Amino acid sequence: EMGLAAVPGRQAAFRQGLAAAVQYAKAVGCPSIHLMAGRVPLGADRAAVAGEMETTFIENLRYAADLLAQEDMTGLVEPINNRITDPRYFLNTPHQAAAMLEKVGRPNLKLQLDLFHCQIMDGNLSCNLETYFPLIGHIQIAQVPGRHEPNSPGELNFPYIFELLESLGYTGYVGCEYTPKGDTLEGLGWLRSYWESRRLQHGGTSKAAE
Description:
Blueprint: H1 11-28, E1 32-34, H2 46-70, E2 74-77, H3 94-104, E3 109-114, H4 115-121, H5 125-132, E4 136-141, H6 158-168, E5 174-176, H7 184-187, H8 189-197
Parallel strand pairs: 1-2, 2-3, 3-4, 4-5
């Protein structure tokens, strides 16, 4: 269902799912949970239900933030493009996500910025990274438009983006959320090449992949 956090009438199911997610996260030592907004109900007009979905989203995010704070965890919200990936997904742009986070007003809720979705919806990645950097809790990457490895043909210059993240002071992980063209090991070959280009040892000081 791509989440339930913004889906009216599904609050009880959202809370059940969140409670289970917290137990899984505690078991594996994961400090953050992606709170997926969910889809505009089938057959509904997006504009007509936007207000109700936003109210539901804010209510659920506040509940989640308070619950996660008890466990010293962070909640993440991720804009997912509605042009290619999921036409009905509710949360689509960094601007929309930032507005929601401001309305919720909880310090342990952050932006999960997937550069694949951000490029498709808005582009202007350098400015967006700088603008929304104080809100960012996690970064994900994939080349555009194929959603493959960062060194595959596409629109994004990842060496530049990685250096920009370093200059901004980002110290978290960068999630590789792409579809490898081959097998997993082959699909990570770009990272060895990147480390070598930066004169870093394999698995060295860089946290460029998780």
